[in-house]
Specification:
mainly beta, 7-stranded mixed β-sheet
Length: 126
């Protein structure tokens, strides 16, 4: 399993950024994909995750801190998960990680992620 995150960078507060995570080594559509972040001196925080149960059937979940500003999506044909971030704030500054875990049920609640990629740094300047 390999997860390669990209798209981080420096952005001004209020701006937007899209992170991508290219996956390989597993059946992408059968996995729950997630984004996490870790700011300096803070614990890792789950930002969002998405599962896919079939055409027009998927489930998304977001941390309260990013609801309405971030959107997670996936392209199963490209084995890629995205995190569209808008309305960025200085407190969004962190290293962002993507993660994957097998989907074991139709309804996925609080998944425990098994595989992790390297992080990509997002810095929001105020």
């Amino acid at each position: 399993v390999q997860l390669q995150a990209s798209g981080g960078g420096l952005v001004q507060a209020g701006g937007s950024l899209r992170l991508s995570c290219a996956a390989s080594g597993f059946i992408f559509s059968s996995y729950v994909m997630g984004w996490f972040r870790q700011a300096p001196g803070k614990e890792r925080e789950r930002v969002a995750y998405i599962s896919w149960n079939g055409p027009n059937s998927w489930f998304e979940d977001y941390a309260d801190s990013v609801k309405g500003r971030f959107t997670i999506s996936r392209d199963n044909a490209k084995n890629t998960v995205y995190l569209q971030m808008s309305g960025l704030k200085s407190e969004d500054t962190a290293v962002y990680f993507c993660a994957a875990t097998p989907r074991n049920s139709i309804i996925v609640i609080d998944p425990q992620f098994r595989y992790w990629g390297q992080g990509t740094l997002v810095t929001v300047s105020s």
